[in-house]
Automatic annotation (TrEMBL):
Alphabetical keyword list: Metal-binding, Nucleus
Any one GO BP annotation for this protein: DNA-templated transcription
Protein name in the entry: Zn(2)-C6 fungal-type domain-containing protein
Gene3D superfamilies: Zn(2)-C6 fungal-type DNA-binding domain
Protein species of origin: Clonostachys byssicola
Domain Zn(2)-C6 fungal-type positions: 40-69
Annotated region described as Disordered, given as residue ranges: 1-34
Listed SMART domains: Fungal_trans, GAL4
A molecular function (GO) term: DNA binding
Length: 634
């Protein structure tokens, strides 16, 4: 019999099955269709094949296996709908969530390692009264600025108007005069690096201690309500309301920028000592004074974290300007110069110098830019003369008439006295026309004519009065009283005399004594006499007034009266002048413990005074011995 080698197909199976079970096929055709399952059967899901989801499915029928449905769809839980009580509450919540996402994206992008800008140094503050760790003592707090060189491979350049340069000239003069006694010279010569700012590295601190929110608003209330605080303690702000804006920013944010922190800390350091003077309660006064130390240390740490590159924004410029003012208060002149130079470059990059040429009376933002540029310009000229370096801002960048620079600025509630700006501008001219490298090549006749013009401008400023100056003096008398106001006025006069002496000193070389130079000796003597008078009155007042006086009188311009009178003393041996020099040294010695930053700047005066004193004593003894021998001879 012949057999078929081909296996039956699936259709054959179906036909065989239907033929073998005619009743079942008939029942299937006549029975109503069953509902399809939502999921495939277990057999089809296991084989990963298609399933028609009938019960049983056609594939299981053909394969003659048991068709079973065990998997079931899990019911999706219903989301509860939260009905807001206020129809706008849902929109507010959505906006809040979007802002949170934006802040998170910004925080992820602005990491400290990217070195993109000032805002990268996000240092969340700790609004408490906690102090810095013991590893960073407050009395020895020194910082390392990334913009300052940390390797002393070469000495920094200082021009001919710098105080250290004049000290070197005086040292050479005394060395030539007292050269016979080598032991006297080497034991008293000041070190060339004794007056430089020590820069040490401090560990970075993530959480900067700050005054508590309660303390912050207490100080703010004093600044607003006490009439003695109406004097503008922060010239960078037009009013207390602008300062209040930064208080709200820092204390309401968990991630304030480094610029906002520096602005607020510098403002606290500037205003808290004055607030401590007007507080009557001894406990509150001690608490405020403790917070001053905390804020000063935190500010040093924050400034040490500044990146090398950051964008030119108004807040960054304001932070650098206030940092420079802080270092002037601390008598760290080189660091103040670094900060102010960075602020000056950023201000010009941002176009703040052009805001002075516009009409800022009706635009507060333009007026604030012009005000900030005026403060930077003033500090730039003063510090350039103080260190003997060229200023960053050229005179071509400002109006010819300086009053135009303050035209719109002084429409603010807190105006800037014109004399301050003009005096700083004159300081810049003194360096450019008498002490710059090109000016040093001029003949004595040309220098003398230039000096006379500068002296006339200074004398005009000293005698000029205007409404802004009188208003400022009136506020000073309300804030300090008549005695302290007169003291500050005297400090300003001492500083002006020092600038006049510097002009006289820039004409005559050290090797000659011209008649024009001789005119400056009485002025140098007058400056030291006035300093002795006003300094004797400081013992009745607090440390803050002593610090302000010393900074204003002795550090606004290089204190050349000491050098001029010292030069005259070693040639004339005048005991009264030597006594004036000793009084200056004594006043510095009394402040050494209270103000180490100030005293170290003038430590170089003491060795020079001791050398001159010993030389005059030896000279007087020799003359006395010769006179005795002459009288005793037959």
């Amino acid at each position: 019999m012949e057999t078929d080698s081909n296996p039956p197909s699936e259709a054959d199976h179906d036909s065989v099955d239907l033929a073998s079970t005619p009743q079942k096929g008939l029942d299937d055709m006549t029975s109503p269709p069953k509902l399809r399952q939502k999921l495939a059967c277990d057999q089809c899901r296991g084989r990963k094949v298609g399933c028609d989801r009938q019960e049983p499915c056609s594939r299981c029928i053909r394969m003659r296996v048991h068709c079973q449905y065990t998997a079931q769809l899990r019911p999706r839980p219903k989301r509860p709908r939260k009905v807001p009580a206020n129809p706008y509450e849902a929109q507010f919540d959505e906006l809040s969530r979007k802002l949170d996402r934006i802040c998170k994206l910004l925080e992820d992008k602005l990491q400290p390692n990217s070195a993109e800008g000032f805002s990268e140094s996000h240092v969340p503050p700790t609004h408490s009264t906690a102090s810095l760790p013991a590893s960073v003592p407050s009395t020895m707090m020194q910082m390392q600025s990334p913009m300052a060189p940390t390797e002393a491979s070469e000495p920094e350049y200082e021009g001919h108007s710098a105080l250290s340069t004049h000290t070197a000239f005086a040292s050479n003069l005394l060395k030539n005069i007292a050269g016979q006694d080598a032991m006297l010279w080497h034991s008293n010569t000041p070190s060339g690096t004794s007056s430089t700012d020590a820069i040490s590295q401090v560990p970075g601190i993530a959480n900067l201690p700050m005054p508590s929110a309660d303390m912050a608003f207490r100080i703010l209330r004093i600044l607003k309500e006490d009439p003695r605080m109406q004097l503008p303690w922060m010239m960078e702000f037009e009013s207390i309301d602008q300062f209040q804006e930064y208080i709200f920013r820092v204390y309401s944010s968990s991630h304030p920028t480094a610029a906002e922190q520096i602005i607020l800390l510098a403002a606290w350091v500037s205003t808290m000592p004055a607030c401590a003077l007007v507080v009557v309660d001894a406990t509150q006064k001690a608490e405020i004074e403790a917070q001053v130390v905390t804020c000063r240390d935190s500010l040093d740490v924050a400034l040490s974290r500044l990146p090398l590159q950051f964008p030119s924004t108004f807040e960054n410029i304001l932070a650098l300007t206030m940092a420079g003012t802080h270092y002037v208060y601390r008598s760290r002149i080189k660091l103040a110069w670094i900060m102010n130079c960075a602020a000056a470059r950023m201000a010009q990059a941002l176009g703040l110098h052009k805001a002075c040429l516009q009409d800022p009376e009706t635009n507060i933002a333009t007026r604030r830019k012009a005000r900030l540029f005026a403060i930077i310009f003033s500090a730039d000229k003063a510090l350039s003369l103080r260190l003997g370096r060229a200023s960053v801002i050229r005179d071509e960048e400002i109006p010819v008439n300086l009053r135009m620079l303050l035209r719109g600025v002084n429409t603010a509630p807190s105006p800037i006295p014109y004399q301050w700006l003009a005096f700083s501008h004159t300081q810049g001219l003194v360096y450019d026309q008498l002490y710059s490298p090109r000016a040093m090549q001029q003949t004595p006749e040309v220098k003398q004519s230039v000096a006379k013009a500068l002296l006339e401008s200074v004398e005009t400023l000293m005698s000029e009065r205007n409404e802004v100056n009188e208003d400022f003096e009136r506020k000073a008398r309300v804030a300090f009283g008549d005695d302290l106001a007169d003291l500050y006025k005297g400090a300003n006069h001492v500083s002006q005399l020092a600038l006049i002496c510097l002009i006289y000193h820039g004409v005559a070389p050290w090797a000659h004594r011209s008649p024009f130079y001789e005119e400056g000796i009485p002025l140098a003597r007058e400056a030291l006499v006035e300093h002795q008078h006003w300094f004797s009155l400081l013992s009745d007042y607090g440390n803050i007034h002593t610090e302000i006086y010393l900074r204003w009188a002795l550090f606004t311009s290089p204190f050349i009266p000491f050098i001029i009178l010292l030069r005259d003393v070693v040639q004339t041996s005048e005991p009264s002048d030597l006594k004036l020099l000793g009084a200056l040294i004594e006043s510095i010695e009394t402040m050494r413990e209270s103000f180490p930053d100030i005293s170290k700047q003038l430590d170089l005066f003491k060795p020079l005074y001791e050398i001159a004193s010993n030389f005059i004593e030896a000279k007087t003894t020799d003359i006395s011995d010769i006179s005795t021998i002459n009288h005793g001879s037959p």
